[in-house]
Amino acid sequence: MIQLFANNDALVVEYGGEKSAKELATPFHRIFLKGVLGGEKIGKEAWEIPWGQKKEATLVNLLKHLDKYSFEYEIDSGCQQVLQNLADRNEEYQRKLDSAQAAKHEITDEDIEEIQGRLGDEFVRTLTKPQVQAVKHLLAINNGANFSVPGSGKTSILLAYFHLLRRSKKKLGLLVAGPISSFQPWQDEFKKCFGRKAIVERVSGKTKAQRDDLYLFADKFEMLLVSYPTLARDVEEVIQVLSRRPYLLVLDESHYIKRPIGGKQADAVLSLANFAYRRVILTGTPMPNGFADLWSQITFLWPDQQPLGSVRKYLQQIRTSKAEQTLSRVKGLIDPFFFRVTKQQLGLPEPKFVIISCKLKPLQERIYKGVAERYLSRIDEAPGDRDSLREWRRARTIRLLQVAVNPVLLRKRTEEFRLPPYRIGDETLKTLLSKYGEYETPKKIEQACAIAREVCELGGKVIIWSTFIHNLTMLEHLLEDLGAVTIHGSVPYGDLEDDEWTREKLISKFKNDTSTQVLIANPAACAESISLHMVCHTAIYLDRSFNCAHYLQSLDRIHRLGLKAEDSTTYYILVSANTIDEVVHDRLIEKMRRLRDVVEGDLPGEVSGYWGDDLGSEEERDFDLVEEHLKLIGP
């Protein structure tokens, strides 16, 4: 008979009788006791297994092993207490799930009044009914997720939850991990919620020595902001910070930790989870690449309970099950943990879309047809292997988009798409391109400037979107008198005092400086974690790509919670007639219908193109339509 004893430091396994001693002495069981549980043999008839961080898990794993191989055992009162504590915690966990499920689907006027009363005068922002319900859900679940659409006020919900927790946990700190682009919005939203600036420090952007000093004095700040790469580098130091003081640990844009196996950022946040007092994840797109993205995020919330099971078992299940079955199963497992507000539930005033067809000017039309005919004549030269073919077709699509908006782009190196200047064999075409800027300004450029000036003359501000960086700099020069500022991938993040042109300072300039009336940006660099709706109600799309995810994100920059009923949001879409622009326009309408269904669903699903220019299965159809377009305008 095996005897199990629990003391303060270890679980002791004693075995009497020849049979038990003989069997536990076999290599298989010795490997389990030593290699899996970390035990050490003491004397001839006993093992000592250190408790480690998770006492219950150690005991349960041992009991499962003994039961599996039919060992007889007895446990002392200490072990019984460990098991009772585990049962109590599981019962409490289930109560929280039931309470969160109820909070997610029901809120009364009394609930709203009670939560608003608890927020008190210190919290100066008035929350909407869905926001109050989201706070109620977090209070019920303790460690929860908010998957509401961009622009729904997730930050305000979190800050209200933080404020209520701090009522009873006076020393509670707030540690937010997220992309650097989210730092300024957190500081802005804090001020709007509390009517004062936060006592805040940004961890990222500092040297290792500076960060080490900051961690030592972290208790001076009520809010710490850290990027995911910095968090992954400083895990041990952050554990020390979390150990000295209770923290609400928030993962903003939590889909960044998507990799469940081998992801440094995912591993980092999971190792921190148990050291935080409370945990919350925020994202409007929890699984842009598919169901695998969810495991790290949900496990971070409840690491001991692992709502989705072990990582390998979960990945195996989603790989071998049909998509509909996986969606139903996963949603059932995580439903109590997340709250979600859809775009429709925000009740925003309907935006207006103005589609303007722009006829190509004569030289631009000749260049476009020349490039199109050249590509059409070389379709048979397409490479055979799949990756090369994709790049070949992608490059031709980008070139056509460039000519349709501004032929000058062909002469420039396109860093954003890693393309060199266009090599031109035809002498006539080469001459037209070399002199183009001297004879014509593309119609779309003229139209965009005219609309921008009209809006600004009426006292408004405008954002102009373009995929190509050279277009941004060209527009900035043309609209210099309107104080135009430009943001693209090369513009750095940060808030260094001696750096005038960081993204944050340019965005702040656009928002707060009345002489800065125009912001010019590309969606890849300025479509996430940025709110412009309080100062800008007009957007102009000089050009667009087939990436619907970036397009939808850019639309949301000026169409968000906080708009008044009388606010009118207008999008001007410029389309070059009889060009690839028309193909892109029709495809984006088609993709938007499907993507809206995805992002407006109960659990938002895969979003092709979210992380870059890989548009998944949709891309083949895009390329096929471009080739059909070439054939229509061919000789």
Fraction in helix: 40-55%
Number of helical stretches of at least 4 residues = 26
Average pLDDT, all residues: 89
Largest sheet: 7 strands, parallel
N→C terminal distance: 91 Å
What can you see in these coordinates?
With 635 residues, the chain is of the alpha/beta class. Helices cover 49% and strands 12% of the residues. The chain is built from 26 helices and 18 strands. The chain has a 7-stranded parallel beta sheet with strand order 8-9-7-10-11-6-12, with helices on both faces. The protein is globular. The protein starts with a strand and ends with a helix. The model has no long low-confidence stretch (mean pLDDT 89).
Topology diagram in text:
Elements: E1 2-6, E2 10-15, H1 18-24, H2 27-36, E3 40-41, E4 46-50, H3 55-68, E5 73-75, H4 77-105, H5 109-119, H6 129-141, E6 144-146, H7 154-168, E7 173-177, H8 183-194, E8 200-202, H9 208-216, E9 223-226, H10 228-233, H11 235-244, E10 247-252, H12 264-272, E11 278-282, H13 294-301, H14 311-320, H15 323-334, E12 338-339, H16 343-346, E13 352-358, H17 362-377, H18 386-405, H19 427-439, H20 443-457, E14 462-465, H21 469-478, E15 485-487, H22 503-512, E16 518-521, H23 523-526, E17 538-541, H24 548-555, E18 570-576, H25 580-599, H26 618-633
Parallel strand pairs: 1-5, 6-11, 6-12, 7-9, 7-10, 8-9, 10-11, 13-18, 14-16, 14-17, 15-16, 17-18
Antiparallel strand pairs: 1-2, 2-4, 3-4
Helix pairs in contact: 3-4, 4-6, 5-6, 6-7, 7-8, 11-12, 12-13, 17-18, 17-19, 17-26, 24-25, 25-26
